[in-house]
Amino acid sequence: MPGDEPSYWRSAAEDEAMQYEHRFVWEAMVKAVDSELAGRRVLDIGCNRGGFLRMLYDSRHIAEGRGYDPAEAAIADARRLAGTRPLQFEAAGNIPVGWGRFDVAFSHEVIYLISDLGAHAESASPLMAEWHREHAAELRLPPLHEVDGVAASFAAAGFEVAASRLNIGFVPLSAQPPRVVEWLDYYNEKKLLFQFTRPFAGG
């Protein structure tokens, strides 16, 4: 039901600001991925208002994108903002039934909202730990996960695991507190990208 949003979803205005702030990270993620995205089917786990998939369609020419997120109001915005793009969004906590196969799946800053280490994980970043301490009670966040445990969990599930630091470049500071060196260290040294690959087992 609208209004029954997860506790971590604030408002459309705050979501829009957040997605604007994340674009430079999204670009770095896409550049780091060892995959040509044009013509691919892409899944976005924790898609929020769909900004990442819109960017991928507009600039990387994906064939189709689907995203899910528990926040129904965010999903309503994602559907509206998608326009005529071949993007589909659902309010769900797991991959919706019937969505089938994807070539590439992304998940950005969802780890700290999820309890299941087998599904996601979080880096041991000092700034993330600080943010988590300040917001855990208000947003009812689960404990942070360790990077090594994430890698081990996906390896145990049959994935080939790789990790990289993101080549971020310039970091917008207008929405950040005046702790420039800490933020540069966070994005350039602590912001990790995992890549999990395995052959498709279906027919």
Query: Structural class, from secondary structure content?
Result: alpha/beta
The appropriate CATH architecture of the largest domain is: 3-Layer(aba) Sandwich
Count the beta strands.
Answer: 6
CATH-assigned fold name of the largest domain? Rossmann fold
**CATH H-level homologous superfamily name of the largest domain:** Vaccinia Virus protein VP39
Share in β-strands: 15-25%
CATH class of the largest domain: Alpha Beta
Supply the number of structural domains.
2
Shape: globular
Strand order of the largest sheet: 3-2-1-4
User: Count of helical segments?
Assistant: 6
Question: Oligomer, anyone?
Answer: single chain
Rg of Cα set: 17 Å
State the helical fraction. 25-40%
Q: Could you report the average pLDDT, rounded to the nearest whole number?
A: 75
Task: Report on the biggest sheet.
Answer: 4 strands, parallel
Distance between the termini: 36 Å
SSE pattern: HEHEHEEHHEHE
Unreliable stretches (pLDDT < 50, length at least 5) are 1-10, 117-122
What does this structure look like?
With 203 residues, the protein is α/β, with parallel strands linked by helices. The protein folds into 2 domains: 1-109, 3-Layer(aba) Sandwich (Rossmann fold), CATH 3.40.50.150; 114-197, no CATH class. Helices cover 38% and strands 15% of the residues. It contains 6 helices and 6 strands; from the N terminus they run αβαβαββααβαβ. The strands form 2 sheets. Strands 3-2-1-4 form a 4-stranded parallel sheet, covered by helices on one side. Strands 5-6 form a two-stranded antiparallel ribbon. Helix 3 (72-82) links the parallel strand 2 and strand 3. 20% of the residues are buried. Mean pLDDT is 75; it is low at 1-10 and 117-122.
